[in-house]
Amino acid sequence: MQLELRGITKRFGALTANDHIDLVVAPGEIHCLLGENGAGKSTLMNVLYGLYQADEGEILLDGAVQHFDGPGDAMRSGIGMVHQHFMLIPVFTVAENVMLGHEQTSFGGRLDLDAARKRVREISDRFGFSVDPDAIVGDLPVGVQQRVEIIKALSRDARVLVFDEPTAVLTPQETDELMAIMRQLRDEGTSIVFITHKLREVREVADRITVIRLGKVVGEAAPTASNSDLAALMVGRAVELVVQKQQARPGPASLVVENLDVIDPNGLKVVNDVSFTVHEGEILAIAGVQGNGQTELTEAIMGLQPRVNGRVSLGGQVLTGLSVRRVLDAGVGFVPEDRTEDGLVAEMTIAENLMLDRSHSEPFVARGSLRLEHLDGFAEEKKKEFDIRAQSISTPAGRLSGGNQQKVVLAREMSRDLRLLIAAQPTRGIDVGSIEFVHKRMVETRDAGIPVIVVSTELDEVVALADRIAVMYRGSIVGIVPGDTPRDVLGLMMAGERPSEVAA
Amino acid sequence: MSATITPDATPVSVTLESTEIRSWKAPIALAVFVVVAVVLFVVLGRDGATTFRLSSDSDVVQLADWVLPARPTGITVTVLLALLTVVVVALTTMGNRLSARARRMVLAASIVAFTFLFLLGFLTWAAAGAAIPVTGLLLGTVSLSAPLIFGALGGVISERVGVVNVAIEGQLLAGAFCAALVASVTGNPFVGLVAAMIAGVLVSFVLAAFSIKYLVDQVIVGVVLNVLVLGLTSFLYSTVLSVDTAALNTAPRFPRFPIPVLSDIPVIGPVLFRQTLIVYLMYIAVVAVYIGLFHTKWGLRLRAVGEHPQAADTVGIRVNPTRFWNVSLAGAVAGLGGAYFTLDSVSSFGKDMTAGAGFIALAAVIFGRWNPVRATFAALLFGFATNLQNVLGAIGSPVPSEFMLMLPYVVTVLAVAGLVGYARGPAASGKPYIKS
Ligand SMILES: Nc1ncnc2c1ncn2[C@@H]1O[C@H](COP(=O)(O)OP(=O)(O)OP(=O)(O)O)[C@@H](O)[C@H]1O
Ligand SMILES: [Mg+2]
């Protein structure tokens, strides 16, 4: 089905998120939308999906003007969408989530769960996902939740499919699989809109590329364009795609983790006897496929896990058994992997979010009351420094574009007096320009003599930042290797094999 | 560096190790009750015998009375309670030999047995030297619980769709009033029943309109509605109903309709199956709401809207209409509970006759963790505790009635705090959905 957007304009108050955008997606085409954080990509797709009403412009399918009052209308017209922020009900099972909105019923109006299970299995098998239809979605790791979103969109046989940053939480293998699926769907005649910040993916699957900046279409690019050309078109300036960094000059050991176990609510050891050391002025990357205990490991260091054995100490001070607040006070900065769930309070303003974990003492609080002038000054400064694109510092964080939300979390955690920085998926969902900035800041943090832990499923990021790399598999550390270890070795280690020359 | 992979590379453990998590909540709670048992049944044990009357004269099958000597029974019960506690402790410390499932079953069975024994011990002790009419005790439980159950079902539906329903009290009261008035005027209890449902729906309309359309805080609207309905019905009661009580406030009651065969079962029959239409409707409502919520399209969509309205919106479910109509439905169900007051237990309306039942229903919703069946049991527990106090008061027991009055609430606090565990309501309950 041919999709055409003509002159779409969407305003939020004074902000014009989409400014007369024209876009044509031909049947059997993968059309990539590129653009910085806050450029208006998600907004445009939400207009297409009927979630937002455009202020101007029209949507045409196969030449006919459409009028969507809500997503129901859009879906009936054959439009499907994989949302950037999961639109899944956490307490429902996978099958229930997939069937929601177009439920099949059997005798007496009872839900036909078997049919839904079958549908989930069918799609999982067809595309090589392994998803248990009866798992509760909230218990699944984000990577699997993402697949559920995809299954949900596919289960409706959409003829126009929008993927809004589906790969942000996928592993490289999963991404490759997804791209294969997209090609398969394209060859069956589906029109696909694909939004991503990862240039490698763009060049791999795109048939056409449209770049959006500040709500306007700024140009088209050929899939053969080089990474740096694409990046420059997106951001409007030249971008360094590789972090410049000096050889690390590690100081004494600072963070010492000894025989750490983490036991989950089902009694499984999700982290099993993990020991490692991070030196001052060193970046240790924790690599591994999503869901191999990395999340739980970082949470255990923060004091967020209830059942932990073993010992964690920072500069001689024992952290195990301390409350989260004490751990923060000890100078640990933490960027959680799930920003919407653990990183931000969506209803609070950017400024309030920026001081969230320092709301009990100087400089933001004096004699029990907030010092708002100080907070505002600080927030303005951080907004500028981290290039947070928002109308003002009093915008609720939930209104920000995905990448800008991530920048708020980073700004908060990296602006404290740090003795250790733990960043889980720090550049998830942010654009190339901001990745450059964040990577630079991490290296600066390291060079200031602070131990840094980066947890990333992104091999590019691991290789770019790490001085040493610890690979986790099934809750254990397979091995700790130097930062220049070849990718294929890392890849094998991520699958649980221990190269003979790598000591455990 | 150049690490090569050799075929005999050592794979790291393939499955995750598992360990045991122990919770000491249950054993500690049981131990506390054992201490209470020792003090009441043994140290403060009473002499005499307690008679449990299992049948009344009108029953077809007559069961013999059960006579238990108070002190020996108390001691036996205490010993058994202690043994059960030991079992639960053993289960907690060295349960590894049993599968998790078997352990949970044994634990649940032990707690049920414990509760039953404790109750038996308590009744024997409290009624020493007197007789307890078991059927009467249970029958009273059902009548006191019926409006609570309807109210709780209304609460469950409303909260599951995302609107906090503090107005249950108002819906019950409005239902009771309209049922009395309309049934008196028409002389037909069925018309009264319909009127009660309409009254409940009208209260819901106000709640829904203000909270969904005008985004007023749902708790505040609910509280205001309760006060409004109380004021309005009291006013109309003294200005209209009392003017001509015979014509306007003498409702025909539903007759008791014993269900053949079932009503002849000893104990259970007279309690459950020698009831009026409203109570039978209640059984149907509990089952219908349960099946509806968890096994139909209606329920799936309703719960989706209460959990994550935005996600529901993205699959084409219209959030606010769904909320509006289901809150109205909740009002109709709660209205039926109101009708129970005036068309079943008594045949006339009295000022503030619901006396806070709506709030207890609200507690039952939470105690029952937003599940219609559990909420029903919670409501029954409240009804039982209240009726226990009536019965023991009538036969004269050593427990001060003020203490017995506290019982339902003490039980709730204990249950919610300890035994039930973490109770989580629908995620979007109380939050209006605003589209951009
Ligand atoms: N509901 C809303 N109310 C007000 N402003 C909004 C709303 N949704 C988005 N915006 C603003 O519109 C702009 C475009 O946001 P959008 O989410 O479309 O960006 P994006 O291109 O998807 O970015 P990202 O790559 O970070 O996901 C941003 O400045 C954002 O703050
Ligand atoms: Mg976006």
From TrEMBL, chain A:
ABC transporter domain residues: 3-239, 255-499
Pfam entry (one): ABC_tran
Topology term for the membrane: Peripheral membrane protein
A molecular function GO annotation: ATP hydrolysis activity
Organism: Labedella populi
Gene3D superfamilies: P-loop containing nucleotide triphosphate hydrolases
Primary site of residence: membrane
Protein name (record): ABC transporter ATP-binding protein
Subcellular location: Cell membrane
Keyword terms of this UniProt record: ATP-binding, Cell membrane, Membrane, Nucleotide-binding, Repeat, Translocase, Transport
Domain of life, source organism: Bacteria
Gene Ontology CC: plasma membrane
From TrEMBL, chain B:
Protein name: ABC transporter permease
Keyword Transmembrane: yes
Domain of life: Bacteria
Subcellular location: Cell membrane
Keyword line: Cell membrane, Membrane, Transmembrane, Transmembrane helix
Main location: membrane
PANTHER family, per database record: GUANOSINE ABC TRANSPORTER PERMEASE PROTEIN NUPQ (PTHR43370:SF1), SUGAR ABC TRANSPORTER INTEGRAL MEMBRANE PROTEIN-RELATED (PTHR43370)
A molecular-function term among this protein's GO annotations: transmembrane transporter activity
A GO CC term assigned to this protein in UniProt: plasma membrane
Transmembrane regions listed in the UniProt entry: 26-45, 75-94, 106-128, 134-156, 163-184, 190-212, 219-240, 272-293, 324-341, 353-370, 377-397, 403-423
Organism name: Labedella populi
Membrane topology qualifier: Multi-pass membrane protein
